[in-house]
TrEMBL record:
HAMAP family: MutS (MF_00096). Residues 1-20 are annotated as: Disordered. This is DNA mismatch repair protein MutS. SMART domains: MUTSac (SM00534), MUTSd (SM00533). This protein is involved in the repair of mismatches in DNA. It is possible that it carries out the mismatch recognition step. This protein has a weak ATPase activity. It comes from Crocosphaera chwakensis CCY0110. ATP binds at residues 663-670. The gene is mutS. Residues 737-753 form the DNA mismatch repair proteins mutS family domain. One of its GO terms (cellular component) is cytosol.
Amino acid sequence: MSSYSESNSTPSIATSKSPHTDYRPLEVKKLTPMYQHYVKVKQQYPNALLLYRVGDFFECFFQDAVTISQELELMLTSKEGGKEIGRVAMTGVPHHALDRYSRLLVEKGYAVAICDQVEDSAQAAAQGRMVERQITKLLTPGTLTDEGMLSAKHNNYLAAVIIAGEHWGLAYADISTGEFFTTQSKELTNLNLELLRLQPAEILIPTNAPDINSLLRPGEKSQYLADVLPDCFCYSLRSQTPFTLNEAKSKLLINFRVRSLEGFGCEHLPLAIRAAGGLLEYIEDTQKAHQVPLQLLRTYNQVDFLILDYQTRRNLEITQTVRDGSFHGSLLWALDRTCTAMGGRALRRWLLEPLISIKGIIARQNSIQELIDNPTLRQDIRQLLRSIYDLERISGRVGAGTANARDLLSLAESLVKLKELAELVLQGQSLYLKALQNIPPDLEKLGHYVIDHLVESPPLHLKDGGVIRDGINADLDTMRKRLEDDRQWLANLEITERERTGVSNLKVGYNKTFGYYLSMPRSKAEQAPNNYVRKQTLTNEERYITPELKERETRILTAQDDLNKLEYEIFVELRLKVAEKAQEIRKIAKAVAAIDVLSGFAEIAVFQGYCRPEILDSRLIEIRDGRHPVVEQSLGFGLFVPNSTNMGNNEKETNPDLIILTGPNASGKSCYLRQVGLIQLMAQTGSFVPATTAKLGISDRIFTRVGAVDDLATGQSTFMVEMNETANILNHATEKSLILLDEIGRGTATFDGLSIAWSVAEYLATEVQGRTIFATHYHELNELASILSNVANYQVTVQELPHEIVFLHQVRPGGADKSYGIEAGRLAGLPASVISRAKQVMNQIETHSKIALGLREGISQVNPKNNKNNKAELIEQLDIFDDF
Ligand SMILES: Nc1ncnc2c1ncn2[C@@H]1O[C@H](COP(=O)(O)OP(=O)(O)OP(=O)(O)O)[C@@H](O)[C@H]1O
């Protein structure tokens, strides 16, 4: 078996970097005409896997066949490629399974070009020529729109990045929902943060690579990828041209039919324009026949949101758990009470983009409050939402001309429901409820119009007919009537002919070769009337046709064809009519998604006993009886021990900036730390929070450093990962940040670790002065509280019984004096001799440690606000590890 793809005589059809390359020369002229066409198409899409329609299959040949058979575990076979060529590698998938297989390939990071037959093969065969085929779709990870290829509650983003020195532009769009955003900023680390937040399915990079248009799969290296770009994404290398300012700008102006980009807020942001224009060009390039209607471009600013870096999103387990990456156990899991796919996607976005605008947060809170105060309204809204389909994505498919009749009907039924929704919220006072009061009446009319046109349960395939109701189109009705008459005549034929011939077992049959025929046993052949024309003789049966039967047959077959065509035309017209309203529908869809999230927040607030936090323009964090929203739900009602938190207004006794949190293993330190972070984050999404009362100042960022794992991919040790993350926090945190540190300095020698932990805590309290909770097993850090006025000690308490420790999970003022680490070792089953030796060693260390001694001797209080003056003194006083 051979596989070919590259030729000496023709341009290469796969480049050396492509994963599907075969270097053997191929003489294209010696291939059969179909293969010659295949090669020609492949040359246009060298970096995509080509699936080529042959009869009922999508086949692929040469090296693509090898790649696809390996990736999809399909049988690799071979097929004659031409007399002098011999057999070439081939694999294929049935046409009805195309979506499934191409989705799998795209998920693996490949681009897939679909080359379909665009005419009736019988017609081409009748004219003795090859059936015409064209590329009908180019699927890449970021340009999917088909329902079956997307996850309902996830956005599928396509992004484009421009880097110019330390400045960068980033545009992203979800072409299935039409959202389209752009931004420009500086510092490449912020670009990295933003990409990790968005998790795009594909990122476009302009390059001068010789191999433009190639798609790098996650983890593939390239000199064209800047170091700052995370290697966990797919990158499409594109030509520079559409990303130049002139090209990009005019593409945007033409596409949105505007004279200036002022209204989009990016007129003076060249990098944002270049990214957005280049992205638009790519969409046009890949979508072929289907025009993708994007919503108006919106410019955003990264600092409009509470910034959550990758570690923080991971450590706070916002969308998936750290342990196994599952949805179950994440914050999203705990809070998702949405009823629609649009609401599900919006909730995910809101949790990843909490607000910093107090006004915005209060607007959301007001709507939640209104929905809590009016339970009947809330339940009615939620009931109605359950019957609303994915307006955003369906209207996208309608606009692109790929929606089928079922899509259109679902959309229409949802449009009618919108009217009911508008009536329900008529008395609403808050912003989000009011937004739904103004649903344009013509959308409801449009809904009814479509419902009146389409049958109740239309078939999946449009060209099979049976889509349009009777009474919509006079021609259609006449054709249907005529066809029905002919079919009736055919149905009666068996009875009339039996009577006429006297042959009681005469039958009417159909086969592909002769069409309709009359059959009777050979023994009765002499009873065949004169107008019977014999067509076929079988062992026991004679088959006949009659001129009238042939005439009716032709009429039935052509009428069915004409009927299907006419129905299709009526459907396309209907779809275009809806497409004109796509933007309007999507606007309403946003309001529906928002009310879905807010009614879900109201629901959970009621059933989980959340309170409305007071949002302040300050640094205060005052949470009374706070709970961890996820652990609380996992443990079951009433089992979680609530704990309060007071931080952030520099009164050491009541509100410190930095809390040193100590407590035995498994007492609940990590849980408490995360609980505070999650409450802050939830509050800034507008949600109510798990606490009795809460007053929360707006945070600009939440930082977390929790545990550490070796980053084998970048060859970094546990300790280096920990230090990198810590450095990032110290360099970027501000006094408005919330910093949650769970163990620092554990990955190295005890005293190095303790020294680093100490100086990090001190730096945060004196230089950064953000709100910090620092959980640690280094009890020595408790001494900081006696030195710095904005540091306080808290501990998670346990009750010591003669033979066991009882975890109380209560956070109380004061530092823990014991770790119970040896006790934990005993419980875990360490040998008794090891435990008793450990106790001896610990006694020795405690007696001789100069750390504790040194710290306790003559250290005066240092006020962090005057820390510059006291710095030298502080350093001297704390120079205590030297002589250990
Ligand atoms: N407030 C609480 N109420 C009830 N159970 C709690 C509470 N806090 C923690 N727990 C339970 O205790 C377990 C251990 O908590 P956590 O992991 O926070 O301990 P830790 O002090 O950080 O331990 P280590 O120091 O070993 O990392 C949690 O899995 C949770 O089930």
